[in-house]
Batch of 2 targets.
Target 1
Amino acid sequence: MKKMLLATMIFFVSAAPSHADQIINQAIKDMMRHEKSNVSKPAPTPVVKQPVPNITVDPVAVSIGPLAQQRTFKTLSTQSEACIQCHTAVTPGIVSDWQQSMHAKDNVGCYECHKSPAPSAPGAFEHNGFLIHVVVSPKDCSACHPEETKQFEESRHAVAREFIAGVPGLALTRENTLFSTLGPVITTRGCQACHGTVVKIGKNGQPTPDTWPNQGIGRINPDGSFGSCTTCHTRHRFSIAEARKPEVCANCHIGPDHPQYEIYMESKHGNIYATRGAHWDWNAPPGTWNILKTGDAPVCVTCHMDAGLPDMKTTHNLSANLSWALQAPLTYHYPDWQAKQATMQEVCYHCHSTAWTVNYFKQADATLVVYEDRYYKPVFEMKQKLVSEGKWPGKPFSTPIQFKFFQYWHHEGRRARFGAFMEGPDYELWHGFYELELDKIELMKQMEKMENK
Ligand code: HEC
Ligand code: HEC
Ligand code: HEC
Ligand code: HEC
Ligand code: HEC
Ligand code: HEC
Ligand code: HEC
Ligand code: HEC
């Protein structure tokens, strides 16, 4: 048994970075590439780098098996009863949230989630006679929800941390230049609040104040697992009704660089959600939610998790239906993009005809070609020229033109593409292509001046 657990743990430790490495490599490659694209061409095969096997595995961490032998219990454990007795006075909000959860109904109590297996387990501390930890990670949840955790780990959500600052000890150490420019104080409540911190454990066994609290979607937990389930299932209700609503995504998917929530709300789909959504069956138990019965528009999780469609299997891998990397400076296809697009289109077919759906994707795809040819190429090529001639400032984010160049692709360039793919005309045009048009003129003018200096 112990051997099997050891093997699982080693697999987990080495599997996670290798997957992350694949994604990172693709992203880095894309950022470096200025001359070639695969818009309307087949996707290149990603370079798969071997993970660096220099991770020290704590033998105690290895011995952590499934924390719970059971999913449901007839009665509440005596340990959990003790927690509740105190915590009803200490943190009444937490107890009342928990009482309204599905966990309370099945007697999954405080101790079942917070217990630690050994004093030397990551984050374990002694607490009124109990050995507990405060950071309940996806690995803890996986004891009872292995399927959802596995799918989550396969998604780009789980590796969101690496894109900003890498992970110490793993091969992923590339730090984002804006991240370094702004520094740790600003980014802890900024970038890292959405992407995740590397939670460190201090001397007293509890997480350090510079890394906790944190609920970033790609948080690196003390037990080595990636992510945080509470980003969508807020503790301690762990509600699915809440996770199904677009507002939960708006915690992160908003703002000038990724306004997916705003785009959705201005789309016809979002209009219908806003006007009729109050009557939809948000509390339907898992596996029984059917949006076709009560509502006639998709929400985020319909298109990105196949949720609410009775003939499709829900997934916690939010990357599963994406064919394009629209967030990159130069758009590129993900591996297996045809199959991913086909699944997305299968979602549309529940309410739209083939012609409506396929033509819509053709219209959106066409905007990518224009983005690349008319906006991306001339400006990036000119910038590359200045870099190669030593005329572009060496220090990142030190002059206004560097910010303008960044916003060109990172703000308006993304908005134009997101708007085109998610039915947001105002973002495609006024916050997107219109601004690209104006900024291209200004950038080219300034860069020509630098060239002639
Ligand atoms: C004797 C009373 C008592 C018992 C029993 C008790 N707690 Fe607590 N717990 C507290 C108090 C007091 C705090 C501190 C609250 C504060 O910081 O404001 C606390 C804090 C916590 C924290 C937060 C620690 C942190 O660093 O943020 C967690 C998690 C926790 N308790 C879980 C549990 C669990 C799980 C159990 C049952 C196994 C339990 N408690 C039993 C009184 C108790
Ligand atoms: C289904 C698992 C689960 C159960 C059951 C559970 N917790 Fe938690 N608890 C969590 C998670 C997850 C977090 C940390 C949130 C995060 O990951 O960002 C947490 C955090 C906490 C914290 C620190 C958060 C804060 O705001 O201070 C306390 C205290 C706590 N739990 C107490 C309790 C008590 C008391 C109970 C029982 C009434 C309980 N928990 C039951 C999963 C659980
Ligand atoms: C000891 C087992 C156990 C652990 C640990 C556990 N859960 Fe659960 N969870 C359950 C059971 C039992 C249910 C009730 C439904 C079921 O049977 O699947 C449930 C239901 C849920 C639901 C569905 C709620 C609904 O409204 O239908 C969510 C979401 C959930 N858990 C999330 C989590 C997360 C996130 C964690 C880790 C922070 C976690 N659980 C840890 C046993 C557990
Ligand atoms: C409000 C939440 C939030 C904040 C704050 C935030 N991000 Fe993000 N970031 C996101 C979301 C959401 C995405 C996904 C965008 C998409 O794919 O359309 C993202 C995407 C990214 C990507 C692209 C990853 C990829 O897959 O190619 C990078 C790099 C990144 N962010 C870095 C940063 C840095 C550095 C900071 C701080 C200077 C930061 N982010 C601040 C939410 C945030
Ligand atoms: C991006 C948001 C999001 C994140 C992150 C997330 N969930 Fe969910 N989860 C959902 C949604 C939406 C549903 C409802 C699916 C449906 O209606 O069929 C759900 C449903 C569930 C259920 C009910 C059974 C099922 O699969 O439908 C469980 C259990 C669950 N999640 C556990 C987890 C665990 C464990 C994690 C962390 C590893 C997690 N979730 C992270 C959005 C999320
Ligand atoms: C706590 C912040 C947070 C929340 C909440 C969140 N996301 Fe994300 N999401 C991110 C970040 C950060 C990224 C970028 C991750 C990366 O590229 O590694 C991302 C990426 C994505 C992607 C792109 C994945 C890919 O492969 O490029 C999709 C789709 C997505 N999120 C959908 C959702 C949906 C739908 C919800 C709500 C149900 C949601 N997210 C909730 C932070 C969040
Ligand atoms: C009608 C279906 C639909 C709905 C509803 C929807 N999306 Fe999307 N989303 C798409 C499509 C289509 C794409 C582009 C897919 C591709 O890459 O081929 C996309 C792309 C994305 C991306 C990836 C952008 C990138 O960087 O490549 C994110 C993140 C995202 N959506 C988040 C959300 C969020 C958050 C919501 C709700 C507020 C939402 N979506 C609602 C269909 C939808
Ligand atoms: C659950 C049903 C449902 C699903 C699934 C769905 N839609 Fe829709 N969609 C609608 C309804 C209803 C309207 C409003 C039609 C009207 O205006 O009369 C609509 C409107 C539209 C419009 C017209 C608005 C505009 O901006 O042009 C487009 C385009 C569209 N959907 C594309 C898609 C795509 C692409 C998908 C899949 C990624 C999809 N839809 C999935 C129900 C759905």
Target 2
Amino acid sequence: MSLLELNDVKVHFPVRKGVLFNRTVGHVYAVDGISLNVEAGQTYGLVGESGCGKTTLGRAVLRLVDVTDGEIVLDGTDLAKLPDEEMRRFRRRLQMVFQDPLGSLNPRQNIESILSEGMAAHGIGANQEERRERIKEILTRVGLPANALSRYPHEFSGGQRQRIGIARALVLEPDVIICDEPVSALDVSIQAQVINLLEELQEQLGLTYLVIAHDLAVVRHISDVIGVMYLGSLVEEAPSDALYAAPKHPYTKALMSAVPVPDPEVEDRRERILLRGDLPSPANPPTGCRFHTRCPWKQETRCATERPELVDLGDGHKVACHFAAGIEAGTVKRTGAAAIVPAGKTDTVPAARTSPEASAETAKAETAKAEAVVQDEPVKAESEVSAEAEVRDEPVKPAPGEAEASEKPEASDESEAPGK
Ligand SMILES: Nc1ncnc2c1ncn2[C@@H]1O[C@H](COP(=O)(O)OP(=O)(O)OP(=O)(O)O)[C@@H](O)[C@H]1O
Ligand code: SF4
Ligand SMILES: [Mg+2]
């Protein structure tokens, strides 16, 4: 049994209209049937573009939004069915680290007060003295000085504030930490430090993470298993290395093609799949395969009429595509619906589309351009994708001292440390 199991979880937000009667006129299908398992001591990375339902799923696990249907089983208990009172006790076991470290910390509370609040509420530590000692220990673990206790959130840099966010989760000794875009608000250099810290903490404390991100590079470094989400559902799930070596779902292939390769020779040979149009509205999702309106391999009529299930194609590599095997074998050919351009030439295609008219014009221009580029070009061999995946840049551990230098607040910690 996995530590955390989601079975067919759905979160449908009602769309209401009218002042007096407040009628429900439809639903936003933000999460629409997600099943996944998070193993103890491992990291599950969840990726997908903005609006696909990642945060809603994270919030559903914590029951911060109403779960429409499905099971959320933590260590054998289905949280989706727990009465509110019992859920409150379970909440300590599931903690969240948020995207915006400043926005999630009360500016009027000092760090000791922020961190001890939850501990007191859940009965951790016999008194404030004990809690303070525990907090000091955790602050050291996340790389913050002990004198941080008496300071306020605005006195810290962005990276340090995220360390405080991580410490706030850790002091409650949770079973699972859900990190929602934990580094996307941080500078690139600091991102690697925070990701490395999460990894170190996992090794030291045996933590279990569900890491949510829109950036594949972020989840690759830290995840054991990666799930790719599109419009409320998982379209692919695989062990991290397998997914990067050979993505099988057309949407994952498009996402991966957007990740730059540092080797200029490989970068020149690489092609990029530019999906047309925005994510369709989750209030009115496409019929059949939800990706069919943007899929370069879309086939008549099955793709638009029959919703594919997530199927294990072997070794835990699961894909929700009727034609995944044929696409991999090269027997199912691309049919359009995307611009395929050399990676170095991506800037020739306008990225932003502001209106449906502009979008249609852009789509036409892209079709012409794409046709010119991909005429008779064979589908890329998986081995080639795999070779490229090998050389992709990964976050680098900072040299000792480097992290400190780049993340220190303006005032020196040493000079102010009381009792140090
Ligand atoms: N409380 C709500 N009521 C109605 N719709 C909502 C609510 N919360 C989220 N949504 C909608 O659900 C969809 C999924 O939103 P969500 O925030 O989960 O996406 P996301 O993948 O986290 O996006 P991002 O990467 O931008 O954070 C969006 O269309 C959003 O507008
Ligand atoms: S089922 Fe059809 S539309 Fe969906 S990903 Fe596969 S080929 Fe594309
Ligand atoms: Mg989000």
